[in-house]
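During the reporting period the student researcher (J.K.) took over the structure-prediction task from the postdoctoral fellow and processed the backlog of single-chain submissions. One of the processed entries is reproduced below for the supervisory committee.
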Amino acid sequence: MLDYLIVGLIVAVAAWYAASKYLPTSLRNKLFGKKKASGGCGSGCSSCGTCEDAPAAPRTGADTPPSQRVIQLHLK
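J.K. obtained the following structure tokens:
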């Protein structure tokens, strides 16, 4: 009986976490309340200037990855 209770608790916590992370913002705000941005990287507050909308600089020959190499296998 205790096993079912523990499993049910784990499933409930996992469902709560998934809902708080992956629901649409409007529904998430209604269910869990609106959370303030923490101001850290990835919060979307653009206070650090890393969320620029400018396109990336084109790649030059020096910073392109090497071409893919094929390793030939000689099976008998």
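The committee noted the following: Helices lie at 2-22, 25-32.
J.K. will present the remaining backlog at the next meeting.
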